[in-house]
Amino acid sequence: MKKTIIVTLVVGMMTVFGANAQKAMDKFMVQVDGLGCPFCAYGLEKKFKEFKGIKQVKIDIETGDFSFAYPAEKELTLVAVHQQVEKAGYTPITTKIERADGTIEASEKQSLSAKTEGTVTKKLMVAGNCGMCEARITEAAKGVAGVSDISWDKDTKMMEVSFDAGATTLSEIEKTIAKAGHDTKNYKAEKGTYDQLPACCHYDRIGK
Q: From CA 5, how far away is CA 24, in angstroms rounded?
């Protein structure tokens, strides 16, 4: 009888320890540049949900603070986090990880004002209507390697973009924006992509 009780206790303790190990989570805090509206936050969260098991996602649009928890056993790295932020179309400024075992990892602050050698600034017309359009256009342009700065005016429909001429071209940036659903002077969005935009984003097509 005593042996049965001892075995039961041991199995119970192993189950508890196993459950606690599975629940061990690393905490991530990232400051992100480029979040301008709820649509931006949604896009960032959606990209990070590709990491299966992510929990406690919080995004503050005004400060750019982005935090989440992730299973410690998966050992998510600083580099992987930075790459995922960039894939979402934004720039990671600082990242801090509080590991489940108590260790801390942090990245150095990245300068947003530093210009790449060979940087040029161009202006072009991009069709759009509203703040959601602005967020979409900005996100698409920032997703092009070499783009360092981007702004779009919904009243004038003019976009100003700075990029490393050795890494990309204005034509490539225009193509990427068109793929996101917005006409430019030289490239038109696919009809299906345009039709899927929210109603408030249905701008007057260029060159109809």
A: 29
The pLDDT value recorded for residue 208 is 58
**pLDDT for 130-160, tens place per residue?**
999 999 999 999 999 999 999 999 999 999 9
Cα dist. 128→60, 77, 186 in Å?
26, 37, 15
- Contacts (Cβ under 8 Å, ≥6 apart) of 118: 164, 165, 166
Number of domains in the chain: 2
d(CA 199, CA 201): 5
Tokens read off for 80: 């992987």
Among 78, 106, 134, the domain-final residue is 106
Are residues 127 and 167 located together in one domain of the fold? yes
Share of the chain above pLDDT 90, in %: 59
Q: Which amino acid is at 170?
A: L
Domain residue limits at 36: 25-106
Q: Classify residue 8: in a domain, yes or no.
A: no
User: Looking at residue 108, what DSSP letter applies?
Assistant: P
| Residue 134 to residue 142: CA distance in whole angstroms | 12
The CATH number that applies at residue 125 is 3.30.70.100
